[in-house]
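Shipment paperwork, digital attachment
Item: protein structure file
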Amino acid sequence: MLERLSIRNVGGISHCELTFESGFTVVTGESGSGKSSIVRAIELASGKRGQAALIRAGEEEAIVDAVFQTNLCLPGLEEEQQPAEGTFFAKRNLSRSGRGRAALQGAQLPLALYASAVGRLVHIQSQFAQLELLDADRQLAMVDSCGGRELHAALRELRDVFQRARLKERELRDIAARRGEIEHRYANASEVVPLVKKVNPAPGLEASLKGEIAELSRQVDDRVKLTQALDRLTGGLSERGLLDELTHVCKTLAECLPPENAQECVRLSRDGLQNFRDAVDLARKHADSPEALSQEMEALEQRLGSLRKLKRLAGAKNEEDLLAYCRGAAEGLAWLEESYERLDKLTREARELRRQASQLALAIRGERKRAADILEKRVNVLFQDLAMEGIGFSIRFAELPKLRRDGADGVEFTLFTDKRSGRVDKIASGGELSRLLLALQLSLPDEWLPPTLVFDEVEAGLGGKAAVLSGLKLQELSQRCQVLLVTHEASIAALGDLHYVMRKQGGESHALKVEKEERIRELARMLSGNPDLPEAQEHARRLLQRQ
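Attachment content:
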């Protein structure tokens, strides 16, 4: 339960300390006295996000400290953040700069984790929070809470089966996704693999092939030039070459010279022509046909072309990427082959788990209808105690199109009279909705209730007998959990075990615990507007004696 609340700079409150007890606590006061600031402070302490508008004018920071008495083990918290010896400290700082802080047991932590933990200890029920309690998931949880062991066991089993089915289906999706990736990545593998065997790629192969081709191209050019030069020197079958011409010229020279010089000219010419012939013979040894070189170069060019095609098909920038692609293709294609058996097994297992889940959902539906009958009867009995004669409560079921972890049932709470019927959030008045929620809280098991329930003027729209009866039911509820009520209704305030009055003095709100005569005067004020009116005080005494 909430044991102590310290408030600084929230709304109209500069500083306020409140201590609470188990049972039924009421908070009253004039309009604008600061009652709502108490509720806002408890909202901050429970983890609700706060606005800078909540901070007292002229201040930069609002602080709320709450002390709870609890032995609960709160999920998500480290051991040092759990309640120690039954005491749990919670603190919220709200800053205009937007840098708020949340701390449990003195340790700062994220607001979401803070709210999850403290939210197990306190719940705030205001006029505007009524529909939150009546959303579809909460309604289903209320029905389930009234079921027996069979329902709870079936729900646990369904959640387990549903989770295992989801894991199987997730694995199936993962396998399908990986298969798609492999098939897309290695779509050209059937064309790449044969080419790889032909090309035999290795790091630096393209550069090496280009170098070899360039060298062979140079050699072919040299052979062509050499052949052309030899042809000019030696001539062909129908033409004389330069050597023949030179021989003829030298002979003509000798014939034209005097006899004493002619013989020397012949000798010199003969030696020079022999040197030329020796040079031709030497060149002919290297004047093979360039065809062999051309064929070798063509083979290298084909290999280079195949290598470039490989890289293009594989989307590789270099030989290393190509080799990695080849390794990946081998592994990926092998995995694809192996995945067929795994896919078949997972599909059968997922189908079987879905079948089990469907059978469990059908069993749960039957148990739920029995739980709904129990809840309907409890609420309808309480309606009579809450002055709601002529109004009935019923629970409708609808089959959901898709199985969920909690089954395939949709639940809808309805009210009906002789003249109207429909969903509670559509046709219930504020007063009817307040009493329905109270009836539901009284009808549900103790484990459904948080240790502390805070009601913010839930009697709004009620009066007379309905207000008194609602107060009596709040008093009854306070035997099962701590109840804090902010109220303007004197007949309900008189039922409280502990009574705080909010009063405004000098622009600041103060909380005062009132007892005996001070409490009588506050109830008289609530009844008549005048705390000193004798008739009102007498009425207040009778209200207090009624407890």
